[in-house]
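Example 4.3 (complexes with small molecules)
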Amino acid sequence: MKKIITYGTFDILHTGHINLLRRARNLGDYLVVGVSSDEFNAEKGKQAYYAYEQRKAVLEAVKYVDEVIEEYAWEQKENDIKSHNIDILVMGDHWEGKFDSFKEFCEVVYLPRTVGISTSKIKEDLLKK
Ligand code: C2G
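Answer. The structure with C2G bound is encoded below.
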């Protein structure tokens, strides 16, 4: 079984997230998603609309997602890759190069982001209504 992992905040889930999850899942047979905790979001300088439990529950309902774990630190990826026997770490390409250090433990793939959609854009557009 080829196991994939990806990480993110996944706030107000949209087709940009779904496109990433679908492509990541299709690179293997099993997709683990590390969802950023509210505390880790603060470290990333992000304020999610939905709390961690909500974002986790939404992702668990996505057909491309096989398992959801908590993301609480940048450096947990190495342990996750080992403990979950991960073959490929997948991230959107605005992270290009940032996770190459994990190539020591698994393949690292950066996928093109979906242009024109983002959680911050959704929030901005709603404010204009
Ligand atoms: N994404 C995408 N296209 C978009 C928006 C997001 O492909 N239009 C991808 C991102 O590249 C990322 C995933 O969807 O791979 C989740 O996006 P975010 O929730 O914004 O996650 P991010 O803040 O990039 O957190 O340790 C890694 C971090 O937790 C990643």
